Structure to design on (460 residues):
């Protein structure tokens, strides 16, 4: 029986929370075992934010070139070289990963173990032939694409958000199954590259967690670019076809099936917790496989924490990094930070993007509060008009009694940046009057936020 190597801390996973925590712990004089079974950087660096937003930028360049005549700029025929697109994406990813590996390599007191980790006890983790013992253990294993057991799914070849990163060709007809954030970003991206694209969504509308006005506006944006949408696809199935894959949609109208050259499954994500041996450590999971944590991200075992996508508290790079900040603050800074202090905020990176913070209108109504709302179409925003990008709108929600800002949606050019003007005020717990009296720079998208705040009206 091998003797365990002893560490002050074991961190399983090199995603967005693991390496910075290793940095803080080693700087505090602790010995750390950092474990990664695949690629340092996790989803964000390798198959998520970095590569996909790099490809979104390439797609935007193609779109702008095609519409150049609208700005008085002639470009001639526009073509897209997918091998160059992929090479550009790969360089951004590789450079980011190399920087992270160099940082980890320079951490005195940190040992990087390559391989799959699984628990052999509350303090013991095995990685290949190495048995590690940690006083404290931090789980940061992320998530992966969810592949539901739909009829025929095992009879076809399909793409996921991960395998899409290896595509260096242009699919003739890409069928995207799933009308939410990941699916829609790829749908618009590949439509702009030149593919025929169909989005298949089981529900009655796209991005169903958003308000109906957001869903309807997003639908219009995609349809105007020639993306076919098949909503209310209650019974989705798959079968091989001479031209690729036949996707059964059984919608309330239109053809009962769509034939595509390639299929992308974008039907949510699931945590990478099923092969960690968490039962041997006594760590509790919920019915969906997420690690159950408290407000400081401790699991049911007091010396084990869970950070990032695997704890069900957020599915974003920024929430994973904030998980690290919360854990480090409590352990090292005597700063009692909590997950419940975090305001939900995220973006949908279609073009134009959606920036979201706090409550939706639907949630605000359900809260029982008296709610004020202000809204402005992007057609009335000078900056958007000047750029020729006038699709979308901005909306702010306010508690009529407390004057607290409850939430905001900015769907339009620069929306992913402009939303922070509202988000920061929400963290400061500033009343809406603070925004009303702010003097923003002209001409920007954000300059209209104070105007919207002044023109609030009760929700109908």
């Amino acid at each position: 029986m091998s003797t365990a190597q002893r560490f002050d801390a074991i961190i399983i996973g090199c995603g967005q929370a693991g390496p910075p925590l290793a940095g803080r712990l080693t700087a505090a004089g602790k010995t750390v075992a950092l474990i990664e079974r695949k690629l340092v950087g996790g989803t964000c660096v390798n198959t998520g934010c970095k590569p996909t937003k790099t490809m979104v930028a390439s797609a935007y360049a193609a779109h702008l070139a095609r519409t150049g005549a609208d700005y008085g700029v002639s470009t001639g025929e526009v073509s897209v070289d997918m091998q160059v697109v992929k090479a550009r994406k790969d360089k951004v990813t590789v450079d980011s990963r190399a920087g992270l590996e160099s940082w980890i390599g320079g951490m005195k007191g940190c040992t990087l173990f390559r391989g799959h980790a699984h628990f052999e006890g509350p303090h013991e983790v095995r990685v290949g032939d190495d048995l590690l013992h940690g006083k404290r253990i931090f789980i940061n294993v992320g998530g992966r694409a969810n592949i539901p057991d739909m009829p025929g799914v095992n009879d076809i070849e399909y793409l996921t958000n991960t395998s899409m990163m290896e595509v260096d060709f242009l699919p003739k007809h890409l069928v995207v199954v799933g009308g939410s954030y990941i699916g829609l970003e790829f749908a618009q991206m590949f439509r702009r590259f030149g593919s025929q694209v169909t989005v298949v969504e089981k529900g009655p509308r796209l991005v169903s967690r958003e308000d109906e006005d957001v869903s309807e506006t997003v639908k219009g944006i995609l349809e105007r670019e020639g993306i076919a949408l098949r909503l209310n696809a209650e019974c989705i199935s798959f079968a091989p076809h001479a031209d690729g894959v036949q996707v059964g949609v059984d919608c309330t109208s239109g053809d009962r099936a769509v034939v595509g050259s390639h299929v992308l499954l974008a039907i949510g994500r699931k945590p990478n917790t099923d092969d960690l041996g968490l039962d041997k450590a006594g760590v509790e999971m919920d019915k969906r496989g997420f690690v159950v944590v408290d407000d400081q991200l401790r699991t049911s075992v007091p010396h084990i924490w869970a950070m990032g996508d695997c704890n069900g508290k957020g599915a974003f790079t920024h929430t994973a990094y904030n998980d690290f900040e919360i854990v480090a603050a409590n352990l090292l800074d005597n700063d009692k930070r909590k997950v419940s202090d975090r305001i939900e905020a995220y973006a949908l990176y279609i073009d134009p993007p959606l920036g979201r913070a706090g409550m939706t209108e639907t949630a605000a109504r359900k809260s029982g509060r008296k709610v004020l709302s202000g809204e402005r179409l992007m057609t009335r925003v000078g900056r958007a008009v000047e750029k020729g990008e006038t699709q979308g709108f901005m909306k702010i929600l306010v508690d009529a009694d407390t004057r607290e800002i409850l939430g905001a949606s900015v769907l339009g050019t620069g929306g992913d940046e402009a939303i922070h003007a509202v988000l920061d005020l929400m963290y400061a717990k500033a009343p809406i009057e603070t925004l009303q009296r702010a003097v923003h720079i002209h001409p920007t998208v954000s300059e209209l936020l104070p105007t919207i705040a002044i023109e609030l009206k009760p929700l109908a």
Observations:
- The chain has three domains: 5-144+270-341, 153-267, 345-458.
- The chain is about 30% helix and 25% strand.
